[in-house]
Amino acid sequence: MITRNPSLTDQVTAHIKQLISADGFDDGRIPPETDLASDLGVSRTTIRDALSRLEHEGAIYRRQGAGTFVNEHGLRIKSRLENIWSYEELLENHGYEPSVRVLDVSQAPCDLATADALGLEAGDPILLVEKLFLENETPVVLTLNRIPVANFTTPPPTGDEDIPVYAYLDTHCDRKLAYYLSEIVPVVLDTDQAGRLDVEPGTPAMSFDEVGYDKHNEPIVRATSFFRDDLLRFRLIRKRMGT
Amino acid sequence: MITRNPSLTDQVTAHIKQLISADGFDDGRIPPETDLASDLGVSRTTIRDALSRLEHEGAIYRRQGAGTFVNEHGLRIKSRLENIWSYEELLENHGYEPSVRVLDVSQAPCDLATADALGLEAGDPILLVEKLFLENETPVVLTLNRIPVANFTTPPPTGDEDIPVYAYLDTHCDRKLAYYLSEIVPVVLDTDQAGRLDVEPGTPAMSFDEVGYDKHNEPIVRATSFFRDDLLRFRLIRKRMGT
DNA sequence: TAGTGGTCTAGACCACTTC
DNA sequence: AAGTGGTCTAGACCACTAA
Q1: What domains, with CATH codes, occur in chain B?
Q2: B3 or A188, higher pLDDT
Q3: Is the pLDDT of residue A66 over 80?
Q4: B217 vs A73, A76, A242: nearest CB
């Protein structure tokens, strides 16, 4: 059934992805784009959009003049770094059944780094929300969100801090999160962080230091997240671009 | 001048990128796609391909129904993680003038992790090439490449290990590097690594543990790289995908 | 309501791989 | 030479934003 929303490309992507996991292609060879187009009753452009997406995810690779193939190595990539939207989804993609625990909600004066990132004055009140994402009682991700109190349309806190940040901002600040600009920062976990993540202090970890922007490119939240490397490892495909 | 190779899309991308850095757009607003298409004498599809690329690089953002805009925050992204091809280019993108120093070239029996990654037997001979990428005498990236000796068509070593790995493999192994599958691993630098990178032992660092594949999806090299976080920080844009 | 970006089509030609 | 993916075109219609 051809419908819009999800888009044709979404549907074709899901369809091919399912065929890949069902091992539905002989020798890992995916049919020519023209065949796929006529089989599925869509244009070649739509097929190509779907295949491009799968190629970026690492699920397939293409060789001009030769064909399109399943990439068995790429299947180890559970999620693209750039497409992570919520950590619940991230953990689900890795095969976990995530739960969320709110560790702390409090107001505090804004530190310099956050003030700089969010365009505030140091000392302006911000709401701190510290959360832990767990797989079956084992902590995997620790996050600290900093939201300017001035942005709230209803007074915090309200007890629903366990919902995803983007939903929380939408509900309480009437600001839709459009994207994050993230820095990848290697750290050594201090005693507090290690305790929360249930590892030894001094364990190396990857962290995100990131600012969330709305559709008008205004900063609305600063977040810092720490990942347990033994439970969550990021993978990506690097290839030559352009010339 | 309309020519092929670089492709039209490449040329349009470069053109718009240049206009952005020259601040050639009022209020950071980029003209409608139809205008760009007729101005540059190409189809709207070509314009859209170029804009999509710039959007992924973080240089612009698009709002359906509203327009396309320069993303001043995104300009801090010096290079997309997924488009890094050589560390020389990476450093150049960050505004450095890189130099390369070959620290060590030697043969050794293959360790288990490398054997597993490259489909060898433990103990098979591999060539180890340790290199340092510097900016003005300051080390920034340390890499260790492991190449199966069996792949060489001419006997190593040959003294040209300072050329990029992809060129080295092409020359001596007759195997073209198609892509890397990389794992991002946070580490604490040991005494050796820290000494080579000229930092204190115990400094946290990001590392890549990666396998390079040829166009037939056969592994041909395993590399481990360490980055000085104070000189090279990776940034990316995270946004919602699909639905 | 006008104008923008988002999706999709049908078709042409090119570059490359394989035989 | 045949068949594949890569690039590009011209045009249609949809979804959304803003005045």
Answers
A1: 8-76 (1.10.10.10), 81-227 (3.40.1410.10)
A2: A188
A3: yes
A4: A73
